[in-house]
Amino acid sequence: MRLLPLDAPTDGVIALAGATLEYRWLPPAHRPDAPPVVMLHEGLGCIAIWRDLPEQIRDATGCGVLVYSREGYGNSSPVTLPRPLDYHTREAETFLIPLLDTFGLGRVHLFGHSDGGTIALIAAARFPDRIAGAITLAAHVFNEEESLTGIRAAQEAFLDGDFRTRLKRLHGDNVDGAFWGWCRTWQEPGFRTWDITPLLPAIRCPLLVIQGEGDDYGTLKQVEAIVAGVSGPVEPLVLPNCGHSPHRDQPGAVLAGVLRVVEGDIGER
In what side-by-side order are the strands of the sheet with 10-16? Predict the structure, then answer.
């Protein structure tokens, strides 16, 4: 059953897997038959953090765009802490694919930032028939010390700076659950060995792997591992003068990359 109207923007909420998720749907601009783009936010993100990027992607590609806030973020329902150490995999299996089913969406393109990029990779590996292509920005496939250094800096800013106040504008009453669910999970001793690289060979869809040279949450070893590990067409895009959020630091390059994936312009290996 399709819940999304094809020809009108829609903002709403949907009950799924015991949670209530906020979502936004932007109808196709001129490619109604193309797989839509589904946007997966970072570990501290939500719909609001994307600002007008969904509209920019819709206008650049012509495709429909679906964006939603995961459980515990934005205006979605709160999450019970602690998050499990395999929360990326659970997000792909328990929420992302059932969400597509509920909305009557078959094959889609995934656009994922940071945690969202990791979820996109897992979905592409576990559900290859559903993923037409993927764009990851600053995705992680294993934990590394540079990631933990960035997270510890964020924790200090949350406790002693204005970071919590800024996040509260995005998440409201979800602010503490959103932050600590991300921050504490990554610092759990059992998460030090977290590694999804064994899943990568199952990824066969076209894939663009974007990361900034100045990313303070991960090194280019993440990009190298993804490019070396997947089986399908893949290209790295390492951007200069760019930190952990390429879509904000280098929006033109990111939008051009999204268009290349949608048009099938990622070269065969």
Answer: 10-16, 19-26, 65-68, 37-40, 108-113, 131-137, 207-212, 234-239
The 10s digit of each residue's pLDDT in 142-174 is 999 999 999 999 999 999 999 999 999 999 999
pLDDT, tens digit, 9 for 90 and up, residues 216-260: 999 999 999 999 999 999 999 999 999 999 999 999 999 999 999
Contacts of 61 (CB under 8 A, 6+ apart): 29, 31, 34, 37, 258, 259, 262
CA distances from 38 to 58, 119, 143, 180 (A): 11, 12, 25, 25
Q: Which DSSP symbol is given to 18?
A: T
The pLDDT tens digits of the residues spanning 132-145 come to: 999 999 999 999 99
Name the amino acid, one letter, at 141.
V
Three-state SS for 165-204 is: HHHHHHHHHHHHHHHHHHHHHHHCHHHCCCECHHHHHHCC
Residues 72 and 79 sit within 8 Å (Cβ to Cβ): yes
pLDDT of res. 226: 98
Structure tokens given for 131:
């993923």
Angle between helices 175-187 and 145-160 (to 10 degrees): 150
DSSP codes joined into one string, 231-255: SS-EEEEEESS--S-HHHHSHHHHH
Whole-prediction pTM = 0.96
